[in-house]
Specification:
Elements: E1 10-13, E2 20-21, E3 37-40, E4 47-50, H1 92-98, H2 103-115, H3 124-137, E5 141-142, E6 145-146, H4 150-153, E7 157-158, E8 181-182, H5 191-194, E9 204-206, E10 212-213, E11 220-221, E12 232-233, E13 253-261, E14 266-272, E15 275-283, E16 289-293, H6 297-300, E17 309-317, E18 339-342, E19 347-353, E20 368-377, E21 382-392, H7 393-397, E22 402-408
Parallel strand pairs: 4-14, 9-12
Antiparallel strand pairs: 1-3, 2-19, 3-4, 5-6, 7-8, 9-17, 10-11, 10-13, 13-17, 13-22, 14-15, 15-16, 16-21, 17-20, 18-19, 20-21
Helix pairs in contact: 1-3, 2-3
């Protein structure tokens, strides 16, 4: 079992490597700012550290063994600028949702509405939009998440450092988060991904055969949209009986998946332009950069439960190269492939976070796993979501994953 955090024990440690991919031309490599890194030595194996990431000129590229950056041509800067993202939802949103009859565009606009609105589930605009999407596209909304796109929905991430939670809502839904949220891994909001020819195949793979809501005695089986236009591959399964609609109000989410213990991992707070960003570098027990966690350090060190941490496997995004011809979108929720940087106003278009150390782990089209860090309440046999993360599949496999029934509340 992991012990409780002891944040009074601070020491100085040598700087750890980590990077933001600057530009998008494969011409730059990054390294951490020189100096020391403050490390929180915790009583439990999962630790939190803090790190500043500097943007370096191209002539420093050979000073780091981190992966080369991915970049778009500099000329793309002229096409458009970000719109202010924190603005009231305009009346046109309702009409826009009325015109949508499929879930690709439906989730894209859902993402925009949820990201641009603070606590959107409490607004009449959100209620109208969800009713329209259910009517036109099908499927229920479960604690704010569309069941038709449930795998995408679970990958929501905090866009701020708030650790306050609405305990009446489940930890696995953004409705429990008191601050703003975003969807950094949404394929419908990644132009480099959704503009690929259909002949290139799927863009997203779910690793979960079925999700269930409610008690094990009378579960509601979530019905995900399998339409080919979504380019999502699911494990083979048949639509199980739907159960009874009242279980939609349950806060209990059940599924079976691969898991690994989080013992020995270290999470390092990342910075961009001298500001903390909602992303932390993930160092495996061997001291190697193996992934990232899409959350601030403060959120990782403030869970409600006090049992062991664990990583659970959710899905995979296809890794694609940025296309030089792709114009910079006007929408601030659109993002580059890979792990994007949220700068407080929107996703940075021409830079991204390095997912893993390419000097140790090989690149591959499906090599990065979308995972969730959870923490168990062993007495009740349920867990809470702590953060969504990404991990190289070889780092995952080296820790001997086992299949387990997961119960989130």
């Amino acid at each position: 079992m992991l012990a409780a955090h002891n944040l009074d024990r601070w020491t100085l440690d040598a700087p750890m490597k980590g990077a933001v991919n600057e530009g998008r031309s494969r011409a730059h490599e990054q390294k951490a700012t020189p100096g020391h890194t403050i490390v929180a030595r915790l009583d439990q194996p999962l630790t939190i550290t803090e790190k500043e990431v500097a943007r370096l000129p191209a002539n420093n590229s050979k000073q780091s063994n981190l992966p080369t950056a991915v970049s778009k041509i500099e000329q793309q800067q002229q096409f458009a600028t970000f719109e202010p993202i924190w603005k009231p939802v305009d009346p046109g949103y309702e009409q826009g949702f009325k015109e949508i009859d499929e879930w690709f565009t439906g989730f894209q606009k859902y993402n925009q509405l949820v990201t641009m609105t603070e606590r959107p589930h409490a607004t009449p605009e959100f209620t109208k939009a969800t009713k329209q999407l259910t009517k036109n596209c099908g499927g229920n909304f479960i604690h704010g998440l569309p069941e038709a796109m449930f795998d995408y929905s679970l990958l929501w991430c905090p866009a701020d450092a708030s650790t306050t939670r609405d305990d009446s809502e489940p930890s696995w839904s953004w409705t429990s988060h008191s601050g703003r949220i975003n969807f950094p891994l949404d394929p419908t909001s990644c132009p480099d991904t959704f503009t690929l020819p259909r002949s290139t195949g799927e863009n997203f793979r779910s690793e979960i055969q079925n999700f269930h809501i409610g008690p094990s005695s009378s579960p509601y089986t979530i019905r995900r949209d399998k339409h080919a236009s979504l380019r999502i591959r699911y494990p083979p399964y048949f639509h199980a009986p739907r159960g009874h609609d009242p279980t939609l109000e349950s806060t209990t989410l059940r599924f079976t998946t691969q898991t690994i213990p989080a013992d020995g991992f270290t999470a390092t707070q990342l910075h961009y332009a001298s500001q903390e960003i909602p992303c932390s570098q993930l160092i495996n027990p061997d001291g190697v950069h193996a992934g990232v966690l899409m959350a601030y350090e403060s959120a990782l060190s403030a869970p409600h439960y006090h049992g062991p941490y664990e990583f659970v496997l959710l899905s995979r995004n296809k890794r694609v190269e940025p296309a030089e011809a792709t114009k910079k979108p006007r929408s601030a929720v659109m993002h580059p492939p890979g792990t994007p940087i949220w700068d407080g106003q929107g996703f940075v278009w021409d830079e991204e976070v390095v997912d893993f150390d390419e000097g140790v782990f090989e690149r591959g089209e499906w090599c990065v796993l979308n995972v969730m860090l959870i923490r168990w309440d062993e007495g009740r046999g349920v867990a809470e979501r702590v953060a969504v993360g990404r991990m190289h599949e070889r780092a995952w496999e080296e820790l001997g994953p086992v299949r387990k029934d997961v119960v989130l509340s």
